[in-house]
Amino acid sequence: MEQLFDEATAYEEMLNKGIGLSGENKDFFASGRLDDLQMVLPNDFTPKYILDFGCGTGETTQLLAERFPTATIFGSEISEGSLIYAREKNQNEQVHFIHNKELGSMVAKFDLTYTNGVFHHIPLDERAKALKDIYNSLKPKGFFGFFENNPYNPGTKIVMSRIPFDRDAITITYKEGKKILKGAGFKIN
Q1: CA separation (Å) from 25 to 72, 99, 119?
Q2: Which of 113, 95, 7 lies closest to 54 in space, CA to CA?
Q3: Residue 131, CA distances (Å) to 54, 93, 115, 136 in order
Q4: Which residues fall within 8 angstroms of residue 101, CB to CB, at 6 or more apart?
Q5: Is this prediction's pTM over 0.85?
Q6: Out of 74, 122, 139, 169, which residue is the most buried by the measure of CB atoms under 10 Å away?
C-alpha cells in the first residue's frame, strides 16, 4: 500500500478516477470538510500551530494555510515520495512537511490537528498508536478534526473501488470512530 502512496505524481490521477463520478474534484471535498471543521471551532479560535496528519501531497495543508494565515502548518506523512512531492510543490514559509515518526518529539505543540481519509489506510493494530501520537501532540485544549468516508454510503463503496490505493482500505463506521477516539483520550463533541 505504501508503494502506491509513494507514486505521488500519480496520486491525483488515481484519486480523480474515483471521485470524478461525482462531477467534483478533490479540492471541492477538501474545502467542504474544512468548512465543516471551521463551523464547529470557537469563533475566536486563532491557532498558532496546526497539524495536517496524513497530508499526502500537501494540497489540504496549503488550504489550511490559506484559512489560518497566522498559523504555522505542519503536514505529516508516512510516504517519503509524497513528502518529497509536497515539499517541492508547496514552497511556503508558513508550511512544513515532516515524517509521521517525528510527531513523538512534538508533545503538546498543536492547537489543531486535521486528518481526512487517513485512518482507513492504517492497519487496525496500528490505529491506536497513531491516535495516541496525535493526542500527545495536541495542546491540552487543542482540537482534532477527524474525517473518514462513510462506509454505509453506496457512493463511498463505488468511489473507493475505483481508486487503487483505497481498494484494500478498512473503513471506519461512526461507532467505531467514536470508540477508537475515546480510547485514545479524546472527548467527542
Answers
A1: 26, 26, 21
A2: 113
A3: 12, 27, 11, 9
A4: none
A5: yes
A6: 74
